[in-house]
Amino acid sequence: MSDIAERVKKIVAEHLGVEAEKVTDGASFIDDLGADSLDTVELVMAFEEAFNCEIPDDAAETILTVGDAIKFLEKNAA
Amino acid sequence: MFDLTGKTALVTGATGGIGGAIAKALHAQGATVAVSGTRREALEALAAELGGERVAVLPCNLGSTEEVEKLVPAAEEALGGHVDILVNNAGITRDNIFMRLSDEAWDQVIAVNLTAAFRLSRAAVRTMMRRRSGRIISITSIVGVTGNAGQGNYAAAKAGMIGMSKSLAQEVASRGVTVNCIAPGFIATPMTDALNEKQRESILKAVPAAKLGTPEDIAAACVYLASNEAAYVTGQTLHVNGGMAMI
After folding, report:
1. Interface A:B, Cβ pairs < 8 A
2. Sign of CA dihedral B32, B51, B2, B211
3. What residue stretches are annotated with the Carrier domain (chain A) (predicted)?
4. If you write DSSP's letter for every residue of B115-127 in order, what string do you get?
5. DSSP secondary structure code for residue B174 in this structure
6. Distance (Å, whole) CA B119 – CA B114
7. Catalytic residue list of B
8. pLDDT tens column, B34-64
9. Per the CB < 8 Å rule, is A45 touching B130?
10. Is B126's CB within 8 Å of A45's CB?
């Protein structure tokens, strides 16, 4: 697992208060991890802060699963 | 009750009658207060009146988009990283009868009274959500609910503030952030001091309490909404008007 993947999963688990093993690449924030729409906005904000990058709204809309977030950040993180 | 020790607040329009009273009241309850306004000397004087402790001076012209964008980050920096209480108090009037209301008078009033409150709230709510606590209090006006001849722009901005606050309140309620409005009626400020005796008489006829309110009446409402005790109050408009309109 890449360093970015590990950090993303840690943020997700902490933020949503779910067990680490549930945070798999395929896990959907809303369907599998119990996030609401505000949680997803907060997660994006948390990623932006942790990885010191900007995630524009249209990109944020495509980040639906843990894997989506990892892929985006591996490409765009500073 | 209503202890604000350890809390931080940003008050816009702090050089006005109501804004100054709000800043003083929050400060008296123990909060650290960043006071904003257009006139630096007046802000410095207010800070001196507060004893120079637990106070920061942040001049800002809310008509300028760039200055508005910088205000919350500047306040967060001055207040140790977070703004717990945002008071959108600043407001201007450019009154005229509707048919003579210019685009410019409309745009200016909407920009300062409504759009600036939107931008400041959007910026401040980020940290509040993360901290799972916060208070956004916007000073609207009775005329935002009742309307007022000659104030189409001002009433629109003030009514807009109420709708905006209710919407934001619904979004962030689950994160411990409350968003409310205070709607003053006729309050004794330099603005109402300018009224002549006849105008004053006719206003007082409409107020069951038979007197003008004071800035301290508004500040007390603000202290309440800012407090932990008001945690279950959100999306509300608290009318402080001596019974002038019972809504």
Report:
1. 10
2. negative
3. 2-77
4. IHHHHHHHHHHHH
5. G
6. 9
7. 154
8. 999 999 999 999 999 999 899 999 999 999 9
9. yes
10. yes
